[in-house]
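Case 272 in the screening queue. Each case pairs one protein sequence with one candidate compound; here the compound is zinc ion. For every case the pipeline is the same: read the inputs, emit a complex structure as tokens, and attach any notable structural observations.

Predict complex for case 272.
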Amino acid sequence: MTQDIYIAALDWLGRGFDLLPIQPGTKKKAAGFGVYSSRITDQYFAAQYFRDASMRWNLGVVAPEGTIILDFDNWDTYLDWVRFAKRFDDSMTTSYTEVTPRYGAHVFLSGEVPDGLKCRDGVEVKHDVVVAPSIVGGVRYESLGVETHIYHGSLDAVFFFLSRPCPDSAVQVVSKMRDYDGGAISKIKGSLSIVELMRKYYPRTKLKQRGIFYNSLCPFHAEKNSSFWLNSQLNIFGCHACKARGDVINFYALAKNINNDQAVRELMTFYA
Ligand SMILES: [Zn+2]
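Case 272 output:
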């Protein structure tokens, strides 16, 4: 178990991040460590904490100058960001992203950071976070997709996203329908497997499994190379090429060519 966290620690050092040992099972920094005090900056100390220690420290990272981490409280705000950022630069939305134990997201971006970043509800700009495969409250941080590169370029989109509300988009957000939810949405998300849904609606598409990830040709656009992925643990999907992504409800809506609202209504009759 210790080995996976050590491998992650070396990867982050390689990307120019400093490391922080985080108390097991929590997000609290180990005594004596902090962004402005002591950090781990080399392999020797990384091995001491993340490979040779008798306990499994969680792993924290501190971003180098010019790199930020967008910390989304919840999945819907994250999806708002994806739709927004797509209009600036598609490649931004495939920058390395992790899903947090409470179903938020951390998006790692580097580039010119505009002055005066503001904050909007549900998202914060951070310079240090806990990362995969740390475990907090019994749940692991996970990388979202299979890509590991960090976007580098203009971060104007971040500035605009934080400065004003997201413009209405053609795609509805599931959270906007919570008034009539009554727990139905989480019941649907909890009972319906995205892998089973994929097999049911696209039975002829070959799925290649790699642990909790599945890859295949994208069912939502025509392609010759597999850009599509499913994450069976988090029950979400995405496509690196056409940028479709979301949860089981979004998948069902796309597969049946209906909107999210209709999808919830149909699925409620089966699962809620
Ligand atoms: Zn696609």
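Case 272 observations:
- The first strand starts at residue 18 and ends at 22.
- Residues 2-14 form the longest helix (13 residues).
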